[in-house]
Structure formats: structure tokens, C-alpha cells
Hints:
Blueprint: H1 6-28, E1 34-40, E2 51-54, E3 60-62, E4 68-72, E5 79-82, E6 89-91, E7 100-101, E8 113-115, E9 120-122, E10 130-134, H2 135-139, H3 146-150, E11 157-161, E12 170-174, E13 188-191, E14 194-196, H4 204-207, E15 227-233, H5 236-239, E16 250-255, E17 264-276, H6 285-298, H7 323-328, E18 332-344, E19 348-360, E20 368-381, E21 387-403, E22 444-461, E23 466-485, E24 502-525, E25 528-551, E26 567-591, E27 595-606, E28 615-625, H8 631-634, E29 639-653, E30 665-672, E31 675-680, E32 691-704, E33 709-721, E34 723-728, E35 737-742, E36 745-761, E37 765-782, E38 803-806, E39 809-812, E40 819-821, E41 837-840, E42 845-855, E43 858-868, E44 870-872, H9 912-921, E45 928-930, E46 933-945, E47 954-968, E48 985-995
Parallel strand pairs: 1-7, 13-16
Antiparallel strand pairs: 1-4, 2-3, 2-5, 5-6, 8-9, 10-15, 11-12, 13-14, 15-16, 17-18, 17-48, 18-19, 19-20, 20-21, 21-22, 22-23, 23-24, 24-25, 25-26, 26-27, 27-28, 28-29, 29-32, 30-31, 32-33, 33-36, 34-35, 36-37, 37-42, 38-41, 39-40, 42-43, 43-46, 44-45, 46-47, 47-48
Amino acid sequence: xxxxxxxxxxxxxxxxxxxxxxxSNKLHAQETRILSGVVKSADGTPMEGVTVWQKDTDNxxxxxxxxxYSLQITSGIPVIFEYLGYKTHTVKPAGNILNVTLQPDDDMxxxxxxxxxxxxxxxxxxxxxxxxITSKEIGQQPVANPLAAMQGRMAGVNITQSSGTPGGGxxxxxxGRNSLRxxxxxxxxxxxxxxxxxxxxxxxxxxxxxxxxGNVSPLNSLNPNDIESIEVxxxxxxxxxxxxxxxxxxxxxxxxxxxxxxxxxxxxLNAMVSNASxxxxxxxxxxxxxxxxxxxxxDGITEYPANAYDVNGTWDPDRYTDWQKxxxxxxxxxxxxxxxxxxxxxxxxxxxxxxxxxxxTVYGGDFGYDRKNVMLQVNHSSSNGRFSFSSNINGGFQNNxxxxxxxxxxxxxxxxxxxxxxxxGTLNWEDNTFENPMAKLNSKYSSQIADWIGNASFDYKIxxxxxxxxxxxxxxxxxxxxxxxxxxxxxxxxxVTPEFSMVSTSDASxxxxxxxxxxxxxxxxxxxxxxxxxGSTFEERRNxxxxxxxxxxxxxxxxxxxxxAVNQRIIRDSExxxxxxxxxxxxxxxxxxxxxxxxxxxxxxxxxxxANNRFANFGAVxxxxxxxxxxxxxxxxxxxFGKLRGSYGIAGSDLIGDYQYLQAYAVDNSKYDDxxxxxxxxxxxxxxxxxxxxxxxxxxxxxxxxxxxxPSVSWYRNRSSNQLVGIPLxxxxxxxxxxxxxxxxxxxxxxxxxxRTTNINSETFSWTTNFNISxxxxxxxxFPNLEQSAYAMEYxxxxxxxxxxxxxxxxxxxxxxxxxxTDVNNDGVLNDEDRTALVDTGVRSFGGFQNTFRYKNWSFDxxxxxxxxxxxxxxxxxxxxxxxxxxxxELTDTWTxxxxxxxxxxxxxxxxxxxxxxxxxxxxxxxxxxxxxxxxKNVSLQYRLPNTFLKGVTADIYLQAQNLITITKYxxxxxxxxxTFVPTLRTVSFGCNMHF
Length: 996
């Protein structure tokens, strides 16, 4: 009997819930008077945390993340709405629904506080570049990873999903690529004050078959619904306080906290259906067979070989299957649920939450991903306010069960290939003429990841203006991965027995702790203010990895037990220790609330460098002029706010891996007299040192007409030098590379524009718009002796590091039907010297366009994401046209004697000249296509049920969609993933939230 899951029951259960709610209206509408509504700011944004209470009583509550509240009131007593930085609103409600718009006081958004890591800063007084999204934006999206919720919403932050397979990874770049090494561009993740892993948490040798590049995002362990806000620090002023760790930007994640209300319970339930967002149009059977027959004819073969089953009559020539839809075209059903309870008193607050998410895959079969989360957060402050304590612990437990190879790679099978299964359900091998891809499902990949992150912070006010703090935290992570390759994954005709079955495992742990004491103060000097922070950081991270491999089993039933194998091998057994310490300081001085100077310095020490260069100094200076507060401009009614700010500073990076400066050795598998030996791995080099990133920014922020129109523009320039790379060595050295500093310099410049408008704002209807666009540029400023180095074919001074040096494609020779390329030096030979065509595959611009509409209890929100870029098209990963392999329908336009002006060369089954031309074609500029896209990233429709439906319960029902529409000219499946892996998924979600 088919298993009944929550996802299958979720929709009917929700309808039952609605019926109960409507029936409860009849029971309770007349019994009590519940006042409810939504509290918004002047620009129509829902306000969370607004205190709502009845005058001269203890009867009160606070608004939730969508600005909604519910309060049982006594008639005739005024209700008061209070929020720091906004005018107090007092009213005697006449009905049961009361929506309120709070007006800012004279300092309007000055009290909107931004988390900058070691300190908080009022939004209008920040001198650095910080982007932010809140639980409101995150909650509108049915995503499993917090990074997915950030796409298209932050200027200067480009996030790309690597595949649509659940549990996969994301790539994030904050203001471009600074390092020549891919892993050297990772930002710093901070979760509730604790550094979090930034690199993939998977052994790519096991996972790369099903997850693109084996990329598994460390943030998969976090439940997005537990997150209160995400801030991204971008410029030198914002990141300098993190020193070397913030060279590539900082992502600050703050989880939710308890409040001062009475106990409140929250339940969230939703069900999702997902499928591949985009397919390629491949040849049908008629077009495919014509291509195959043409290939044999071009090669002068008149009698089809015995193994050409698709064209020699063995397979049905009238059969057609779109294998894309068979392999990755299934509908994945998912479910997500969360429960939380929070509350407290004036001095102590707490919040506990538990969540569960389960995702199926578009592959079909018994594969999927599930995650469990728990979180406990406690705050306490003494009665006199001098001592406060905060702690948080967050646990995430992932279980991913997949095949070991992405079936998306098999979607190019011949369209007339046989059926996958026999009538009795067994695999069909079609008399051994067919390699059935479904046999690969017997080869499986699994991973279990457990992550804990916790922190505790203690604050004590030494004086009313000086505070001592101690922040501590820990991370504990363990992952177990396994890939099995049983004999059953092969055609039985081959006679492969369990003797050839193999299993590979990887057991990794990542543990760390951090201690950060600091002293801070805020001094009021009349018209001036002085703030300071002095602190230090002590951090340690320990990584352990044990990789094993075993083969030769008596039966595939024992393949999960390594001890049952005849042969067992230790592939890798390693332990690394990373230690880091720093001392930092920040000084902020404000004159007349108009002129702000911010100085930040940090001295870092890292165990990744030799004794000569273990410590380095970094710092930044930032300033801001709030010119709208000048007397000459105060009377201008249409200018609400104006700020000019700028910053300059130097950050560093030690993202090179541990022990790279030491002369390292490894145990060798070969033995002498049954005794294993050791072999050298790395050469000693104690003199390489930190990468340096010099950052500069200038920005203008404006608000017009009481904040209804708020544009901003910023220009930045980052220059990264002293590049940490593996410098290639000649083969005679006995080593491939030597870790060191390369005297190369990479520059990232760009413009960032944002615009927020309040188009309509009334008691019953509001419409707001948010727009952002980033225009980044990248170039290699300097690289001494580049032409004589091993990087000569990769980079060009003065050009982007995303540039590819390629052959210049001239088209198809009308006489021979073979691709032609430019012989640049006219020597009659095509080689690397002729690869002079430069194509920039970097992102040219990206951004998002969001609109939010609210009408009474309804809200509607949508976000368009856009990216302008070039990338490798679908042909890059495909073999030559003409073999037993389906192709995009565009390749029906191939050269024949009757079609000499074709776009693609003649087909072949093995002609060497045509094959050689095709290999050059894949190294030519013809392989790069426009990969720009416009995507309806997110749509959210929500309805707040009137509180009279159920006594004491606030309930929302919603419909959400992700990756709904993609508009692109890209020649391939998905312009975001740019691979043959499963594309990003289109997801539709229906759910409800209840608070009581």
C-alpha cells in the first residue's frame, strides 16, 4: 500500500481547518471582543515589535513579523501603539478591526538599528555599506537555504544556485571575485556572533556525481524560518572590524528571540510541489534518425554497424521518448512544518522552536532530503539593567538519500531507445542492446550531517556609559557520506559479480570555539558623541577526516558493511588545527548629529602562516555627512534626508588552507618489506603572507517627500594583491606547486543603485516598490611576467579574470563542411598561440524589482530577478553530433551538400578531421552564449483571517511560488546553473501560519 505522507494530507487538512475556523465564528463572535489589525510605517512596511496596550492596564501585546496583532480589549478604554522612533498613537477603537499607520518623529529612521556585528548602528548614522533582509522577506519564500532567500534582493550580492537537487550548494560573491583561487572568495558567515563554515561540507569525490562540483552549502543546516534578519557587510568600513576574516564580505545571520508577551505558540505548516523550471528542446525521433543516417553517409558508411541499434532496425524507428521528462521531469512533493513557543517577562524572555522539512526529488524513486531543526534562545537582564545575558543554541540534522549520478546527464539518450522497464517491472536490457540508465539507481549516495552552533554573551554596565562584554560560542559538525557501486548497476550480461562491488565512505568532523571579550562605551559630549569598542578574539577550529574504500564482497547485501569486504583501504586520514587571534578597536565620533567619523583597526594572527608573517594589521576609515540636517536645507520640504558617505581601508585574507607553509608528508600506499613509507607533499615556504584587499567606496543616500521616494547610489573599488596561490613548478622539482604569494593584482569596481518608493499609502491599501541594480566590473590590473608563467592561457592583464582565451570561430567551411577558425599568426597551424579571442563570462549586471500590495487583510508580493551575463552553452558538455546521442533541435541545421550555409558542421561517427575541429570548437568563442535571464523569482499571496473566526488565534493562509517564470535566450537548460545537472526547480507552496 502506498505510504500516506503529510504532504498528501496537508491541503485537505488545511480546508478542514478553515471550516473549523468559519464555524468558530458563530460560536465566539458574540462572546468576546477581540481587537486586531495591522500596524505599518509611513512607507507601508509592516512593523514588528510594536507595543499595543490598553491605557492604565497590564493588558498588552506586540505585533508579529507581518505587523499584525490581536488583543482582547475592554470597551471604552483607549488603546496605545508605541514604537521607538515613531510617534505614539492613541485611539478608542469603535469596531473589531483597527489598522494603524505610525508616523515617524523628527528623527524618523534614526532609530532603525542595523546589526554591524560587534556593534549596532542607527541606519541613518552608518558610515559603511550594509544590506539587510528580515524575516518578512524570508518568510515569503518556500526555500530551504537562507542564501536562496537573498537572491535578487541585495545590491552587490550575487548568489547562484549550483543545482536543483535538494541539499545542494550555492555560490555567493560580494562585490566580485577578489582572489584568483575559487575557494579564496568565500565570505565570512556569522550566526548569532559565532563564525560558521564557509566552504562546502561535503567530500566532493563522493558527491560530485549528483551535486554540481560536490558543493553542499554549510547553511543548509539552518532553518530559514528561525532567522530574524540577514545583514551583509560589504565595504571596508563595515568589514574592517573583522580584519582578515572580512576580506570578501561578511554575512551576519541573527535568529529570532523571545518577547515580553505572555506565552505565545506558533505553528506553521505548508506543502510544496516542485518540478524542473526549464527544459531544452531536443530532437524528435525523425530528426534524430536523420542526423544519424547523415553521419554515416558523410563517413561513407552504407551498411549500418551491428551496434547501431537506433538506425539499423533493432529499435523501433517510430518510438519517441523525451528522456528529460522521464529522468528529471517528475513532480517532487515536499512538506515543511515549524512549531515555536516563546514568551517571558520584563527581565527574562525565551523562545523554543522545532522544525521539520522533507523534500522529494524530481528523479522519482525513493530518494529525498529531510532536515530537522531545534533552537532554544534565552535572554535575561537584571532588575537594575546593569547585567544582561543572552544565549542561543541551534541544531540542524540533515539526511540526504540520492543516486550517485545525476540522471540529468542521460536525457540525451536516443529518443527511440527502448522502454526502461519490462511489463513485470524489472529493468529492460532489450536483448543486451540497451544500457539502461535506471540501473544507476542501484548506485547510491547518502549523507548525514549534524550541526550544532551555540553562543552565550554576558554584558555588564561598569558605569552608565561603559559596558564590559564577553561573548563565547562553539560549533560542532559531523558528516558521514557514503557512495555504493554494487555489481547490480551493470548490465547482467557482463557477468559482473559482487567481487567488483565497491563502497566509499567519508567521516568528517568540524569543531570550533571562539571567545571574544570587549569593552564599549557611548559618551555624550553635548553636541557631540563619542563611541568606542576595544576587544579581542581567540578562535580555534579543528577538522578531522577519515576516508575509506572497500571492494570485493560476497554479496551486495553486505555492501554497507566495510568489514564484509575482502579489501579495505584508508584513502585519507587527516587532522588539521586552525588557530586565530586578534585585537581590534573602533572609534566613532559624531559632531552636531551631522558629521560622523568612524575609525577601525585590527591586528590579526593566523596559524596558516610561518613565524615571519603570522601577524598583520588591517584597518579602515569611514565618514558621513548628513547634509539634510544643515540649516540651509532644513526648510526644504521635499528633501527629507540626505547623506554623503565614504570609506577606505585594507583587509586581508588567509583562506589558503592549513599547514601550507610547512614541508608536509603523507603515508604512502606502497610498502617496502610490508612496511608503509612516507612521501613528501609540500615544500617548505615560511615566507608567504596575507592577501591584501584595499577597498574604497563613495555613496549618496537620499529621501524625498517624507521618505516616499528613497534612492541611493554607491561606487566602489576593491583591489586585491599579494595573491595566495599554488605557484606551478616544473616536473623536475618533484612537486606540482609551491604555495606562495603571486605579485598579481585584481580589481573590482562597480555601481550599485537602489530605489524604494511608497506609491500609495492609505488605511486600507498600500503599494510599495523596491528596485536594485548592480553593475560590477573586474580586471587583472597587474601580473608581472604573465606570459612566461603557467597562467598565460588563463589571464590577460587589463582584462577580466572571467575572460576566456579562445579560438575565433569563423563558421563552417562551405566546401568541406568543417568548422573554421582564425589562424592568427598565419603559420598554418592552430595551437594555443591562436587562442586570442577574449570573452568575458563574468556577470555584467544583476538586480531585482519587487512590489508589495496590501489591501485590508490581503497582501500580494512579487520579485523579478535579472542577471546579464554570458556563459558556456549546452554544447560544451555534449559529444560530437552524429554518434548515438541526442542533440538540441538547433543542430538539425548541419552541413550537407544541399545545405552549405548551415550553422553547424557536418555530422560524423568518427571522422578525425571533423572530431579535431569539434574539439577546437569547444575551445572557441562559439561555445559562449548569452546566458542572461529575467526570472519571476518569488510570488506571495497571503490572507489574514479575521480574529473573530477563532478566539485568541491569529491565522494566515498563503500561496507562494518560487522560480515561476524564466525568460531567457540561453542555449541550454538553465542559465543559472549552466550545467547538465538538474536545473533550478519551480516550486508552488500552500500553507498556513497560526499564532495563539
